[in-house]
From TrEMBL:
GO terms for biological process: defense response to virus. This is CRISPR-associated exonuclease Cas4. It comes from Methermicoccus shengliensis. InterPro entries: Cas4_exonuclease, CRISPR-assoc_prot_Cas4, Dna2/Cas4_DUF83, PDDEXK-like_dom_sf. CRISPR (clustered regularly interspaced short palindromic repeat) is an adaptive immune system that provides protection against mobile genetic elements (viruses, transposable elements and conjugative plasmids). CRISPR clusters contain sequences complementary to antecedent mobile elements and target invading nucleic acids. CRISPR clusters are transcribed and processed into CRISPR RNA (crRNA).
Length: 266
């Protein structure tokens, strides 16, 4: 499902699409080589590392729980034989061992469930993860976009590949930039897997999951947005796409930006 990213200056990354929706000018300035300085970037890195660690623990606990449960069932198979042999003590010991294994299995399974709930980790099997920054980049030659989803799960029983994107902020409803970034991952996965991606999942800091359908309307909006970005790159100029003074006040590019919004009347 992955491929090496080519050395091409016209490639647009999925994260860039999210940045563009937030502010087209700050996106373009970053594209031109200006480095952003924001505590949100550090918080995002910390959050991804934390979720990556918890995801590893969840997978470990689930495997351990299954092994303990299987061992308990195997032990229980011996119990009837001990009764036939007249060893009541052996039967009781075996029964207690099986119950202990089942109890520990349940404890470890419960830990995995609590972590999944707290960090919004889906129950499906993880088949790809970049939460520790070690995964290979997905690339679409058709659309000239690239990206690395935080992780990908395989849905049961459909077998569909579902991208999951983790955000360090809270949101009452998904931000549009995040939605389009997720849509880009859906498009990348479709090209690499050759299968349809029905939806993606956004997970915010409170652990709440937002399932975003990858329908025709979202696909069309994504492709239109990519087209706009390419046009700006070709023309080597960009128009601001928002009127929010709050965004500008918090922007680390305000000293080099010529389109700063100072108040709501501008």
């Amino acid at each position: 499902m992955s491929d090496k990213s080519p050395n091409r200056s016209d490639v647009i990354t999925a994260s860039e699409i999210g940045d563009y929706i937030y502010c087209s000018v700050s996106w373009y300035l970053q594209r031109c080589g200006h480095a952003p300085e924001s505590p949100r970037l550090e918080e995002g890195t910390r959050k991804h590392a934390e979720v990556g660690e918890k995801l590893t623990i969840v997978q470990k606990e689930k495997r351990a729980s299954k092994r303990l449960r299987d061992a308990a069932y195997i032990v229980l198979l011996i119990a009837p034989l001990l009764l036939v042999l007249g060893s009541m003590l052996g039967f009781v010991v075996i029964l207690m061992l099986a119950l202990t294994l089942l109890l520990v299995s349940r404890i470890r399974s419960g830990r995995a469930k609590r972590l999944k709930s707290k960090y919004g980790i889906p129950s499906e099997r993880v088949v790809y993860s970049d939460l520790k920054g070690s995964a290979r980049t997905l690339f679409s030659r058709r659309y000239g976009i690239a990206g690395k989803p935080d992780y990908i799960v395989r849905e049961n029983p459909s077998g569909a590949y579902i991208p999951v994107e983790v955000k360090s902020t809270n949101a009452r409803s998904p931000y549009r930039g995040h939605v389009l970034q997720l849509a880009a991952y859906c498009l990348l996965i479709e090209e690499k897997s050759g299968t349809r991606v029905p939806y993606g999942i956004l997970v915010y800091a409170d652990g709440r999951q937002h399932r975003i359908p990858f329908d025709d309307a979202l696909r069309s909006e994504l492709l239109t947005t990519i087209g706009e970005m390419r046009l700006y790159l070709k023309e080597k100029r960009v128009d601001r796409n928002h009127t929010s003074p709050r965004k500008c006040a918090a922007c680390s590019f305000s000293d080099v930006c010529t389109q700063v919004v100072l108040n709501d009347n501008k």
